Amino acid sequence: MATTYEHDIVAWAKEQAYLLRSGQLSVLDIEHLAEEIEDVGKSEQRELASRMAILLSHLLKWQYQPERRGSSWQRTIKEQRKAVLRRLKNTPSLKVSINDTEWLEDAWGDAVSITIHETGMDCFSEVCPWTIANILSEDWLPDEKL
Predict the structure, then answer these.
(1) What is the number of other CB atoms lying within 10 angstroms of the CB of residue 49?
(2) Would you state the pLDDT for residue 40?
(3) Rounded to whole angstroms, how far apart are CA atoms 54 and 57?
(4) Cβ atoms within 10 A of the Cβ of 57, count?
């Protein structure tokens, strides 16, 4: 066994798992193992940010396009809220991200970009006008923009 990380990551991962389980620690690819472990955390953070951006985008569309509101948007809002809350429950350390102002600004920026692309509208606030509590509240929806 000597598959390199660069050659075949799947075969490499299986080999590394075998080496770990069999106690052959001296032959492990420590540097790449550490990178992969860090990437797991980054992947979870990206997933949370993606779900939040989709949720925020649909809340924006709900607020700014009341004439287009429908059950599809409601389902998406509900599903994304559940997905965000599930991520926070299963990975409690992500709660730090959700309460981080800079993280929310990034998610908001992504949501605004998505919404502009999907609607052609470009009238949104530069900062998220809603609290995390509202965004994740099961029954909360933004009021119509006047």
Answers:
(1) 19
(2) 87
(3) 5
(4) 25
